[in-house]
Amino acid sequence: MKKIALAACLFAPVMAPVLAHAQPVTGPYVSLGAGIVIPDNQHYDYGAPYQGEAGHLDFRQGFAVGAAVGYGLGNGLRFEIEPNYAKTSGDKSKDNVLGTTGLKGADYTYGALANVLYDLPIALPVPIFPYIGGGVGYEYEKLNHLNDIIGDNYSGDHGSFAFDAIGGVAFPITAVPGLSATAQYQYIELVNSRTYLDAPAGSTIKISDAGNNIFSLGLRYQIFNAAPVPPPVMAPTPVATPAPAGARTYLVFFDWDKYNLTPRATQIIAQAASDSKTNTTVLDVSGYTDTSGTPTYNQGLSLRRAKAVEAQLVTDGVPASEISIHAYGETHLLVPTGPGVREPQNRRVEIVLH
């Protein structure tokens, strides 16, 4: 748990609220990364004939590669399956009898993890989008002729349940829609003990833990939403008409991917309801979204926002017969943006009193 806390501390600086909104991944994606692995020391206990002897195995820095196939829900949450592979080599063996001795041979870890990740909905002054996550899976550790100064030679390939913790940042590559570069830290630990055999001597060694600190660079590609998604084939999109001269307009804003009313929103709606009681024949209530998410989803979200405002107007005393609601989705942006941008001023409902 201390290692997980350390991983969180390493990425705490990028989690501080500062101004570019994270772009949620929507739909399937693939990723690939490579980097260095810094292994933790591994505790071991000898079996017969060295019963009672114990110590640590130290390994040198090595290399690691990983890939993933995942799916983003469009609200920041992502799910993925990640196969991975790492190789290190022996450095030193420290035990309670011989002290520190040299260690040769190779150590391989490989397996697959099921991860849940979250793209943090914070604003930064540059287009760097942080994410965190973790998961569980099954990993194998293979020792290949791991031997020390007295000639012990251990080999074998054994599996263990494993968990991981992840923190990273993504950098969109604007020249290729849907493609992002990533920089990531990942900690993977095997939780079950594993016993390896020195076949010529008949002795065994039991390793009780194994952890890898992996620092990698990679690429992530969002498959279907890489380019701006055209609206689905349906009835022509309604066109918002400008409010006539003399009409009063009220703007109600919403949090990202939400349609519940904030305290400030209810105040604005209450004011619109009060003002509508004088010489008003109809209230146009029009819902909008930003460009994050799919056009189909945004169309539904804009309608839910408009209905939430309509319900509050009725609660504030406006007859339902005087309210006309409209949903425009991600069209008619108040602040023009490209696709996949969380712009707060575009997440709105406009109330126009005629």
Describe this structure in words.
By secondary structure, this protein is mostly beta strands. The protein folds into 2 domains: 2-222, Porin (Beta Barrel), CATH 2.40.160; 248-353, OmpA-like domain (60s Ribosomal Protein L30, Chain: A). It has helices at 2-10, 263-275, 295-315; strands at 26-39, 42-46, 54-59, 62-73, 77-95, 99-119, 129-148, 153-172, 179-190, 194-198, 203-207, 210-222, 248-253, 283-287, 323-327, 348-353. It has an 8-stranded antiparallel beta barrel. Strands 13-16-14-15 form a 4-stranded mixed β-sheet. A hairpin with a 6-residue loop joins strand 8 (153-172) and strand 9. Helix 2 (263-275) crosses helix 3. The longest helix is centred in the last third of the chain and has 21 residues, at 295-315.
Task: Give a concise summary.
With 354 residues, this protein is mainly beta. Helix content is 12%, strand content 49%.
Features:
354 residues; mainly beta; Porin; 60s Ribosomal Protein L30, Chain: A; 2 domains; 8-stranded antiparallel beta barrel; 4-stranded mixed sheet; 16 strands; 12% helix; elongated
